[in-house]
Write a structure and sequence with these properties.
This protein has about 475 residues and is an alpha+beta fold. Helices cover about 35% and strands about 30% of the residues. It is built from 13 helices and 19 strands. The strands form 3 sheets. Strands 13, 14, 15, 16, 17, 18 and 19 form a 7-stranded antiparallel beta sheet that branches. A 6-stranded antiparallel beta sheet has the order 1-3-2-6-5-4. A 6-stranded antiparallel beta sheet has the order 8-7-12-11-10-9, sandwiched between helices. Helix 9 packs antiparallel against helix 10 and helix 10 packs antiparallel against helix 13. The longest helix has 28 residues.
């Protein structure tokens, strides 16, 4: 319990000896408020006599309220004698100065140690408005510095950080967004506040909300998580990979941890992740080409070797593969065709279920490809051709069947078969709706496969002379 001196100017700082229950209640309330403060507090009357001393002051210096109240200043007990006059003058000068004054002093603890404290002092005025004393709140300098560092860190994170920082409340809505995060989300800092995450992200919301909910319930995960999201931009949706860390925010004022929300820190690692994925894909495809070459070398029939290359290429690349050969004598580059290009099916993967390529077209009947068919364009251009189904699923099925492809095909990539300067045919790779469209890097891989298939077919012609079909 705080103690106060019961005479003189103490009346200006707190209740004196109570004359009744009302005054006693006021004195008890004042004592409770002083003792409940997180900062150490003492007060002096106009003569410099200590009138109040709370529990935090007792904790820091070791002097109890009974030992401190009634002493004149800090001389002889709470400061060294050499510093007493200066400290007393600086503290009492606040009684005649406007506002608060901040000082740092080295105070002496009860056991003889020294503590550097930072003080804030201001005048206490009586009913007539005249100065009646001084109150002084103080704390250990290292504690004050820790607080200032925490505040400075928060301000730096929300102003100058090179990664995104978002404070999400317990309802999973952004409460504070720093400048970097606002740029990543493509929205203003104030515009994002209080809005559901579903309005800020086009994809990846469920995964992000699941992570935030887990952190609120269980605490921070042991390692960062990489999340793919889609951000809305004026150019359309863009997929980004954010390496995210989470920390649960709890109130320091509650006896039990009360979650205030989650601190979400993220860094855009899209380019690095795409580089890793492309590198892994390149290694896998190179390995597949190597394995295919070794398996094809064991085939006695070069035509069988061609289908082996095709089967190895399908893994992780496409759902279907079709191998079509130019009917008649292969045409050299620059040579004019005697008639329209006709193609004969040599092999195809099963349409119903996964499996190795099946040789077809023993009768040598040309395929009924219509004008403008991607395979015919591929032969005419002697280069890769990509095509994608338009519109709805029903329209996509019609598109595939019109081109004599399996009905589930929505993406196509045709690569020309060239060997010894001649066009031998076309290999067509098809993907279903569950896969992405073919990109330029896919066309490069398909052309590598086509070179090996063409070489095998050319060798088959050399072994068994005579034009196919």
């Amino acid at each position: 319990m705080s103690a106060s001196r019961r005479s003189g100017a103490t009346d200006e700082l707190g209740p004196d000896d109570p004359d009744g229950p009302e005054e006693s209640g006021g004195s008890d309330l004042l004592a409770a408020l002083l003792d409940g403060m997180d900062a150490a507090l003492c007060a002096f009357d106009a003569d410099g006599v200590v009138t109040h001393w709370n529990r935090e002051a007792e904790r820091i210096l070791g002097w109890t309220a009974a030992e401190a109240v009634g002493r004149h200043g800090f001389a002889g007990w709470a400061v060294r004698s050499a510093d007493a006059e200066e400290v007393h003058a600086r503290l009492m000068s606040a009684m005649h100065a406007p506002g608060r004054q901040v000082h740092e002093f080295a105070l002496v603890t009860k056991d003889g140690g020294r503590v550097l404290v930072r003080t804030q002092s201001a005048a206490v005025r009586g009913p007539d408005g005249k100065p009646a004393g001084v109150y002084c709140a103080f704390s250990e300098v290292h504690a004050q510095i820790d607080l200032e560092r925490s505040i400075a860190l928060s301000e730096a994170l929300f102003e100058d950080a090179s990664w995104g920082v978002v404070l999400v409340d317990a309802d999973l809505r952004p409460a504070v967004v720093n400048a970097h995060a606002a740029r990543a989300l493509g929205i203003g800092r104030t515009s994002a506040l209080g809005r559901p995450l579903g309005e800020l992200l086009a994809q990846g919301v469920e995964e992000l909300e699941g992570a935030l909910t887990h952190v609120l319930a269980e605490g921070a995960p042991p390692a960062p998580a990489e999340m793919w999201v889609a951000v809305r931009t004026p150019e359309g949706e863009k997929r980004r990979c954010w390496r995210s860390g989470f920390v649960r925010l709890a109130s320091p004022l509650a006896e039990e941890p009360v979650p205030l929300g989650v601190g979400w820190l993220f860094l855009d690692v899209t380019e690095a992740k795409q580089g890793e994925q492309e590198g892994a894909l390149l290694r896998f495809r190179t390995n597949q080409l190597h394995r295919a070459a070794r398996a094809a070398a064991e085939c006695e029939d070069p035509a069988e070797a061609a289908t082996v290359h095709l089967d190895f290429a399908l893994a992780g690349f496409a759902d279907h593969a079709l191998l079509d050969r130019v009917a008649g004598v292969p045409r050299a580059e620059g040579e004019e065709a005697a008639g329209p290009v006709r193609l004969v099916r040599l092999a195809a993967t099963p349409a119903g279920a996964p499996g190795p390529s099946v040789p077809t077209g023993a009768a040598g009947l040309p395929l009924r490809y219509g004008e403008g068919h991607p395979a015919l364009q591929c032969v005419e251009r002697a280069g890769a051709v990509r095509a994608d189904a338009p519109g709805s699923a029903e329209r996509a099925r019609e598109w595939a069947l019109e081109r004599q492809w399996p009905g589930d095909a929505v993406h196509a990539l045709c690569a020309v078969l060239r060997s010894r300067g001649r066009t031998l045919g076309v290999v067509t790779f098809l993907r279903g709706a569950g896969r992405s469209r073919f990109e330029r890097v896919d066309a490069v891989y398909a052309e590598d496969v086509a070179v090996r298939v063409a070489a095998a077919l050319d060798l088959a012609d050399a072994v068994r002379p005579g034009p196919a079909g």
